[in-house]
Amino acid sequence: MYSNDTNLTKNSIRSLDSSIESTQRIFFELASDQRLSILFKLNRQQLENDRVYNLSKLAKHLNVTIQEVHRNLNRLMDAGLIEKDSAGIFSLTTFGNTIINQIATFDFLSRNKEYFSTHTCGEETPMKFIHRIGALNNCEFVTGLVAVIELWKQRIYRESTQYIYGMLPQIPLDLIETVIPKIKEDDGIKFNYILPQKGMVPKKRAELLKNAGFHEFIKKGIVERRMVDRIQVAILLNEKQATVMFPTAKGLGEPDMNSVFYSEDALFHEWCLDYFRYRWYNSKSFDESKLVEV
Predict the structure, then answer these.
(1) Residues of 97-129 as b/e, b for ≥16 C-beta within 10 angstroms?
(2) Which pLDDT score, from 0 to 100, does residue 16 have?
(3) Helix/strand/coil (H, E, C) string of 251-275?
(4) Number of H helices, E strands in the chain
(5) How far is residue 271's CA from residue 200's CA, in Å, rounded to a whole number?
(6) pLDDT of residue 193
(7) Bridge partners, residue 196, by sequence
(8) For residues 291 and 200, what is the distance between their CA atoms, to the nearest angstrom?
């Protein structure tokens, strides 16, 4: 019995070592400016479908010698990242294309390593969203609470034509004053929002909502509200633009509203929309009594 267990452990270690060596080799091949440039050019070739690269064209576009690019092409082929057809045209393999799509994740995290040294992705964030975090790569980082709120008011709220979806830990008075006239003026705007239990709202909120006939919007289905136990990753988006903020590593793990990632990129928007929908469909009925007026 013990012998079999020992053999099983040894086989598992060998399998792990083999896997690490394989991963190590791929990282090594990617740790070259020229090889990365080749991969990105072949990826762009695949996306645009209007340019083909052989050995001489790659050397010309990279401004290097044919011998040098030939050496790196061979390395990439040996690693299974690219292939060459009978006409001498290079292209990404399925494996190479998949690897390229993962580079966005490393790029996003690397460019924002200072931010993610003090912030987390949230304990409640499903792994499927963390695996897709590279979708947030094409974005702008906005800092400062005033700048963040102005971004929401001027871009997310006022430029919306179809919907506004929000999931925030607290609602500043400025946002309430901005969204009310937007909903009243544009009948086609759908407003869905999620608040946490013990979410903070301004004392003037109740009076503002009453005077605006906010409950009529709820009855008509123009406004829908849901509630969750807590919010760690905050989202605010319209049909074209999106913002996301993550929680700090210390404290209560609430979203840091002093900085936000913003973008009009389709992949970025899709990530934020999917995350909002995930929380929406796993939320509870809205309970006004659970909110905290400040």
Answers:
(1) bebbeebbbeebeeebeeebeebeebeebeeeb
(2) 46
(3) CCCCECCCEEEEECCHHHHHHHHHH
(4) 11, 12
(5) 26
(6) 97
(7) 228
(8) 6
Partners of 144 in beta bridges: none
For domain 2-103, give the CATH number: 1.10.10.10
Please give the Cα distance from 128 to 236 (Å, whole number).
20
- Tokens encoding 56: 């001489």
Tokens, residue 83: 């292939």
Q: Which long-range contacts (CB under 8 A, 24 or more apart) does 120-127 make?
A: 120/246, 120/247, 120/248, 120/249, 120/253, 121/233, 121/246, 122/232, 122/233, 122/246, 122/247, 122/253, 123/232, 123/253, 124/230, 124/232, 124/233, 125/232, 125/233, 125/275, 126/278
* Angle of helix 66-78 versus helix 33-48 axis, rounded to 10: 80
- Contact at 8 Å (CB) between 265 and 138? yes
CA distance 51 to 192: 44
- Give me the residue spans of the domains in the chain: 2-103, 126-293
Q: Does domain 126-293 have CATH number 3.40.50.410?
A: no
The H or E element that residue 88 is part of is: none
What is the dihedral angle through the alpha carbons of 198, 201, 205, 209, rounded to the nearest 10 degrees? -60
Measured over the CA atoms of residue 27, residue 33, residue 35 and residue 40, the dihedral's sign is: positive
In the structure encoding, which two tokens stand for residue 61, read together?
Answer: 């576009």
**145: nearest Cα among 251, 244, 256:** 256
Scanning the structure block, which residue is given the tokens 């292939």?
83
Residues of the chain short of pLDDT 70, as ranges, are 1-19, 47-50
Q: Are 119 and 247 in contact (CB under 8 A)?
A: yes
| β-bridge partners, 142 | 260
Q: How far apart are CA 155 and CA 240, in angstroms?
A: 10
